[in-house]
Amino acid sequence: NSWLTLRTHLFCFVWQIAMIILFGVFIRYDKESNAHWVETKAHDNITSDIENDFYFRYPSFQDVHVMIFVGFGFLMTFLKRYSFGAVGFNFLIASFGLQWALLMQGWFHSLDPQTGKIFIGVESLINADFCVAGCLIAYGAVLGKVSPVQLLVMTLFGVTLFAVEEYIILNLLHARDAGGSMVIHTFGGYYGLAISRVLYRPNLHQSKRMQGSVYHSDTFAMIGTLFLWMFWPSFNSAITDHGDGQHRAVINTYLCLASTVLTTVAISSLSQKTGKLDMVHIQNSTLAGGVALGTAAEFMISPYGALIVGFFCGIISTMGYIFISPFLEKTLKIQDTCGIHNLHAMPGVIGGIVGAITAAAASESVYGKQGLINTFDFTGDFKDRTVLTQGGYQAAGMCVSIVFGVVGGAIVGSILKLPIWGDPADENCFDDEVYWEYPSHSGVQQPHDPQAARPVSPFSMLCLTISHKSLVIC
């Protein structure tokens, strides 16, 4: 344990020092966050600070940031004894990943050839959060089975692979993927699944007692679901063009998510002989519509089209938890803790297909001539591209994300399998006590008091605290 702690300390210190050095060499403020903005305004005849991109993008950035740190973190607190690891390690890898993402995405997308510097603004922060989201998705597949050092290594390689596949899909293929169905969810899903397959534990049943949830852990996980569900329209529209594209992305995602909830509830109820609902389905499958509409969010898919996508996503994702997850574990030996195949990988592929079909079916009568150019960015080297060709490149982008996820995950999984990372033993998986100071050991219990040995849930503690404060106020 002491050597494990030392390794965690070393990795965190060394990598943060490396980030400081690399930021000092490469990262600078862009023209809209630089103190020379006053001169830029005068030069470009900008009359008001409201034209600064900060005022357009920051509300979306706030929403995406909450999704990354609160939504993803709390969604994974469903395990009865792994809430600290879910929220705490989510916090750790997101904080490391966003720094590395600013560098990697900067080197590929915004490196100034004259100065050799990367200039960052608020949109850079959104894209870094998107990059981190792919790694957090992958974390869901190995939740409770890896050490914090393994998570940092997984994030280091995950962000690197993400930056490369993002550059290929968005820049070289010129595919559109505003909400990241392909770039984020498909890649992150298959990256995590491939790592989980390589790290397969044949004796994981020794921790089966820890794998389930309890009433209050499911309630806390539902908090993550609601934050993600509410802010997903911002996620899918955050980096779209100002104006109609961003407006349309919000509307389409909003409708798709609402439709997904109803079909998820319907299938969950139908799957049980008693007709009752399964909280696993409600926590996860209700979000699948937001994933699947990420690529086509800014397209003219129409409001009823968004409802149709959500309708089928709720069915497919819920059926995935019922039938596909057991098949993956039993036959393919993929132990997917959070079911990311059903929430991210499979809906991400659906999103790529929907995007390809919608792009290929686009017409000037629906979009208008200038609308087609703006929506699909048919400018510069791509000004002569047709919508059918665009549809083909959208499909190619989906294939690239799958290949990067599967191959990259297999390679990174092989690295993580080396016996040097301090991962938990089979009988200690899904248990916070391996890596965290556990609060039950910090207090002194009176053995003669029958109430002292009775565990108190975090939810009960919250209620007791509120009641106590109310009495004090009275």
From TrEMBL:
InterPro entries for the chain: Ammonium/urea_transptr, NH4_transpt_AmtB-like_dom, RhesusRHD
Organism: Oncorhynchus mykiss (Rainbow trout)
Protein name, entry field: Ammonium transporter AmtB-like domain-containing protein
Membrane topology: Multi-pass membrane protein
Family assignment from sequence similarity: Belongs to the ammonium transporter (TC 2.A.49) family. Rh subfamily.
Location of this chain's protein in the cell: Cell membrane
Domain Ammonium transporter AmtB-like: 53-434
One of the GO biological process terms: ammonium homeostasis
GO CC annotations on file: plasma membrane
The keyword Oxidoreductase belongs to this UniProt entry's keyword annotation: no
Stretches that traverse the bilayer: 12-29, 86-106, 118-139, 151-170, 182-200, 212-231, 251-270, 282-301, 307-328, 340-362, 395-416
PANTHER family recorded: AMMONIUM TRANSPORTER (PTHR11730), AMMONIUM TRANSPORTER RH TYPE C (PTHR11730:SF30)
Gene Ontology molecular function: any one: ammonium channel activity
Entry function: Functions as an ammonia transporter. May play a role in the elimination of ammonia in the gill.
Entry keyword Cytoplasm: no
Keywords: Ammonia transport, Cell membrane, Glycoprotein, Membrane, Transmembrane, Transmembrane helix, Transport
Pfam families: Ammonium_transp (PF00909)
Subunit structure of this chain's protein: Homotrimer.
